[in-house]
UniProtKB/TrEMBL annotation:
GO cellular-component term (any): cytosol
Name of the molecule in the record: GMP synthase
Glutamine amidotransferase domain span: 30-194
Signal peptide: none
One protein family per Pfam: GATase
Length: 239
């Protein structure tokens, strides 16, 4: 658990693999008075989680698809939790797989794109995206790492796109935010855990890790400031 002595709110983060954590977002949550708890897949964390209890639920990324529930039964359990939570409009954030899980829980299709989007690049924001928290990320090279994409659920606002993926994020009101990309990753700290942890995927996709490492090292913009401003603004708006 992470949180100062004055932490009064709870944030539960479902973490599928150890290195895809809250990253830059964790200190923002702590400063906002949240006690952060990670729920990992082994053990009974998901089965015992009260879907409505955490003040904020965050579902992080992972290297599987929402349609693989037979091989990975926790995917269905996670969607059950999300379905109950989203029905009540409880504050929920999804990143990458987490965003796809939110979309699937809302009845939207999630399918392979037929290509990978792996590397750093900016998001082209929609008009809605430009007036919300994501405006802090305009022109910022964020990390992309996925091969699936979601359709925008009914009633949700499309927030942005890239040339390789037309659906990079959506929101429903103030409390529900789903992001296909990874603004939580601090490229200035290095991405070796990602390159090593996803080595098989990179090799299968014909992507040279040296190119991704060079991309990360070439980024001169301090991504930490806009990413944390985005998260801070969103967290201050939920309730």
């Amino acid at each position: 658990m992470v949180g100062g002595p004055d932490a009064t709110k709870s944030a539960a983060a479902i973490r599928h693999i150890q290195f895809e954590d809250l990253g830059l977002f964790e200190p923002v949550l702590t400063a906002a008075g949240y006690k952060v708890t990670y729920l990992d897949l082994d053990g009974d964390g998901l089965s015992t989680l009260d879907a409505l209890e955490p003040d904020l639920l965050i579902v992080l990324g992972g290297p599987v698809g929402v349609y693989e529930s037979e091989a990975y039964p926790w995917l269905a359990e996670e969607r059950r939790i999300l379905t109950a939570r989203l029905a009540k409009g409880r504050p929920t954030l999804g990143i990458c797989l987490g965003a796809q899980q939110i979309a699937a829980a809302l009845g939207a299709e999630v399918e392979p794109m037929g290509h990978k989007e792996i590397g750093f690049g900016p998001i082209s924001l929609t008009d809605t995206g430009r007036v919300g928290p994501l405006r802090h990320l305009e022109g910022i090279p964020v990390l992309h790492w996925h091969g699936d994409a979601f359709c925008i659920p009914d009633g949700a606002a499309n927030l942005g796109a890239t040339g390789l993926c037309a659906t990079q994020g959506f929101s429903i009101g103030q409390n529900i935010l789903a992001l296909q990309f990874h603004p939580e990753v601090d490229a200035s700290a290095g991405i070796e855990r990602w390159l090593t942890g996803h080595a098989v995927e990179l090799a299968a996709s014909g992507i040279d890790p040296r190119e991704l490492r060079a991309q990360a090292q070439s980024i001169t913009t301090d991504m930490r400031v806009p990413a944390q401003r985005m998260m801070r603004e969103w967290v201050s708006s939920i309730g």
